[in-house]
Write a structure and sequence with these properties.
Blueprint lengths: L3 H28 L1 H7 L6 H12 L1 H15 L2 E5 L13 H12 L7 E9 L6 E9 H11 L1 H40 L9 H4 L4 H50 L2 H33 L5 E4 H15 L5 E5 L4 E4 L1 H18 L6 E8 L2 E8 L30 H11 L3 E6 L5 E8 L9
Parallel strand pairs: 5-7
Antiparallel strand pairs: 1-3, 2-3, 4-6, 7-8, 8-10, 9-10
């Protein structure tokens, strides 16, 4: 991954290194005698050339060389031996030497020239010479202006490069942020399109990861909004039927004789009970997602045995065969698990034939627990299995009973625990529902 953090860090370090390096270089150029001695054309290699000429051709040739350098570069030169005595006359006048001596005695003395010294040892004779250079200040200032042209150019180029690099880094941050801001705005207005961040999600840095996660979040929110709207439509449709039947029964009761009205009361009571049961299941479905209570330890052995007894009391003709591992513990919300398993058992009792037991098993598989409820009924056609568990959906053959919320409640409870409800036809006949739950509530896995 090309980390945005490392790119920004590298750009700042590069800027600091370049600015520091150029600052040090300019400081050395302006203040160090060695820089002037090595770069000034009138002083560069002067000591070596003069020594070779003096040792090979004598004093006159060496003196003439110094005179020529003075005429060309306006630089006065003195050459002293190891004893401090002049080797040649040099080009520095005695009056100037006396003036320099007087100025050096004064604390605020200012000389009109720059005095530089350099020692050179002859490779041929081993003698050491001290060369004293005096460069007039106007001459040195003019040379400084010309010699600083290339470092200043280098500094300007470095600043341009840093500016362009900083601009690219800034754009690489602000453009994705602008796209994300637009996506957040669209999401808030319910007009978010999943492909609006597809290009940004292809990046291999933090913004790419963020865009990918945002796409998933947007898709999930859109799915939830769509499910909520569909649920409202389904609730409206389901409530309309019992309310319509109640209205008809009340209209008949108003016109009926007292004897006929007495016969209508059981029908009104039955419709009210159906309406109450439907509203109760809708509220249970809503509470599954809205419950914010903390998870707690669940003793599955005790919970399943209690459910077994309650289910057999409700349907004495239905035998429930329970097979549970010992000491099964789960962390979660016991009310949700109980409601989910109760709905699965009721669904199995509704379709299981008499004389055949309903099989309920629970076993641990690694870091998960699988609870299965199997009946020996007719099962469900394969093409309808994927729709089971959707609110108010009833497969063909199941329209006479229930409201299609039992499996939806069980599925929501499993998802709240980070698990899954897997519905399928058993290979040996009948229908099986597997509640796959993690030991600790987490993120749901795909079946």
């Amino acid at each position: 991954m090309r980390s945005l953090f490392w790119r920004i860090l590298a750009s700042f370090w590069l800027a600091i290194a370049l600015v520091a390096g150029l600052s040090i270089l300019l400081g050395h150029m302006l203040n160090q005698d060695a820089w002037i001695l090595s770069r000034h054309p009138g002083l560069n290699n002067l000591a070596e050339e003069w020594t070779q000429l003096y040792e090979s051709q004598g004093e006159n040739a060496a003196q003439n060389m110094l005179q020529q350098r003075k005429r060309q570069y306006h630089i006065d030169v003195q050459v002293l031996n190891e004893s401090g005595e002049p080797v040649v006359r040099g080009t520095f006048p005695r009056r100037a030497a006396a003036f320099e001596a007087r100025q050096s005695d004064r604390q605020d003395g200012h000389l009109p020239w720059r005095r530089l010294t350099a020692e050179y040892t002859s490779a041929k004779t081993g003698d050491t010479y001290l060369l004293i250079y005096r460069i007039p200040n106007p001459e040195l200032d003019a040379w400084h202006r010309s010699s600083l042209l290339w470092p200043l150019s280098a500094l300007a180029i470095a600043l341009v490069v840093l500016t362009l690099f900083s601009l690219l880094v800034t754009l690489s941050i602000t453009r994705p942020l602008s796209r994300l801001r637009g996506a957040v705005h669209d999401l808030g207005q319910a007009t978010y399109q999943q492909n609006s961040l597809a290009k940004l999600a292809n990046r291999r840095d933090e913004f790419g990861v963020l865009a990918t996660d945002f796409n998933r979040m947007g898709a999930r929110l859109q799915s939830l909004i769509g499910s909520q709207r569909q649920l409202l439509r389904d609730v409206s449709h389901e409530l309309r039927s019992p309310l319509a039947r109640l209205r008809i029964a009340l209209a008949l009761a108003e016109r009926a004789t007292p004897e006929a009205r007495e016969k209508l009361w059981p029908r009104l009571t039955r419709e009210c009970d159906r309406l109450e049961a439907l509203i109760s299941e809708i509220l249970v479905l809503a509470r599954v997602d809205a419950d914010n209570a903390s998870a707690e330890d669940i003793d599955l052995n005790l919970l399943l045995k209690t459910l077994q007894k309650d289910a057999q009391l409700g349907a004495p003709d239905q035998q429930i065969q329970l097979d549970v591992e010992a000491n099964l513990q789960l962390k979660g919300w016991p009310t949700m698990i109980e409601r989910a398993l109760d709905n699965l058992l009721r669904n199995a009792q509704r379709f299981n034939p008499a004389g055949r037991p309903i099989e309920m098993q629970a076993q641990r598989q690694g870091e998960r627990i699988v609870i299965s409820v199997r009946d020996h009924g007719p099962g469900v056609e394969a093409k309808y299995l994927s729709q089971l568990g959707e609110p108010f959906y009833r497969a063909p053959g199941q329209t006479a009973q229930g409201h299609g919320l039992g499996l939806a409640i069980a599925r929501r409870a499993a998802e709240r625990h980070g698990g899954n409800l897997i519905l399928a036809n058993h290979p040996e006949g009948g229908f099986i529902a597997n509640l796959d739950l993690p030991l600790v509530p987490g993120v749901a896995v795909q079946p």
